[in-house]
Design a protein that fits this description.
This protein has 291 residues and is of the alpha/beta class. It has one domain (4-286): Aldolase class I (TIM Barrel). Helix content is 37%, strand content 20%. The longest helix has 18 residues, at 251-268. It is globular.
Length: 291
């Protein structure tokens, strides 16, 4: 088992700077220009990567939900039509790949089905993330392991036994877990941040945090508790239409998040108690008795 996993040119895990992922997900609402503006916000904030979600609607939408009517910014449509409307295809991901290269930021996706993995393999992604909803989809996990790419496994709405079963299907040398509660937005009392060190102790792999709460305080606490990777949903405006927007961070908040995580990292230090050079003049002035 490894305490460090490499994603592109960055090591993630013990002793490394926190890897910060801006989760665009489907907050682009099917609009490539919105996706680009969100990428720009992640670059400006200093994030390490942006992440999208990739689905095959005919596989991911249950039959009983396909014809349910939904009010959308584009008018009334079935849930299936809505899912197809917001899904990016080859044209859009080719442009995203080019744009992220221009902006020098890593991108990857959460694939929701095996067909989506096959689709994304054409882009040689640096990693994949397994959504919490698919922790128990062993066929998907096995296909992802076959890619031999680093995997990030979210653990929302999962028992420890379900997490153990998922981890047993994956290559621990390429695995990062994230502590997650799948509520949007999530109340602080449901975050259970002490799961972060518990997951690390049991599985011996890098453990991060994927948050869906409102505000930034609890994400900072996750870093203090040892999260080596942080993922937060981002949006241009939390009032925008979409199921994930209210649990997302706006560009100004994203910049504060990255800035403050870097300050926290410097403040945590290495745990070895010593006298700092900056203390010596004060010590000479104030300490009257030396041992």
């Amino acid at each position: 088992m490894s305490s460090v996993v490499k994603i592109r040119n960055r090591l993630v895990g013990d002793g490394q700077p926190c890897y910060i992922v801006a989760e665009i997900g489907i907050n682009h609402n099917g609009e490539l220009e919105i996706a680009k503006r969100l990428i720009d916000a992640a670059v400006l904030a200093g994030c390490d990567a942006v992440k999208f979600q990739k689905r095959t609607p005919e596989l991911c939408v249950p039959p009983e939900q396909r014809n349910l009517m939904r009010e959308t910014p584009w008018g009334m449509m079935t849930y299936m039509q809505y899912r197809e409307r917001v899904e990016f295809g080859t044209k859009e991901y080719t442009e995203i790949d080019h744009y992220c290269s221009q902006r020098s930021i890593t991108w990857f996706v959460s694939p929701w089905d095996v067909k989506s993995v096959e689709f994304m393999e054409a882009f040689s992604p640096v990693s994949y993330k397994v959504p919490s909803a698919l922790v128990t989809d062993l066929n998907l996990l096995r296909r992802l392991r076959e890619t031999k790419r680093p995997l990030i496994l979210s653990t929302g709405m999962s028992t420890m036994d379900q997490i153990r079963a998922a981890v047993n299907e994956l290559d621990k040398e390429r695995l990062i877990l994230t502590s997650t509660t799948s509520t949007y937005p999530c109340q602080p009392e449901d975050l259970n941040l002490r799961v972060i060190p518990a997951l690390k102790a049991e599985f011996g792999v890098p453990v991060g945090y994927s948050g869906h709460e409102v505000g930034l305080q609890t994400t900072y606490a996750a870093v203090v508790l040892g999260a080596c990777l942080v993922e937060r949903h981002i949006t241009l405006d939390r009032a925008m239409w979409g199921s994930d927007q209210a649990a997302s961070v706006e560009p100004s908040g994203l910049s504060r998040l990255v800035r403050d995580i870097r300050v926290i990292e410097r403040a945590l230090g290495d745990g070895n108690k010593r006298v700092f050079d900056s203390e010596i003049p004060v010590m000479k002035k104030l300490r009257l008795v030396s041992s």
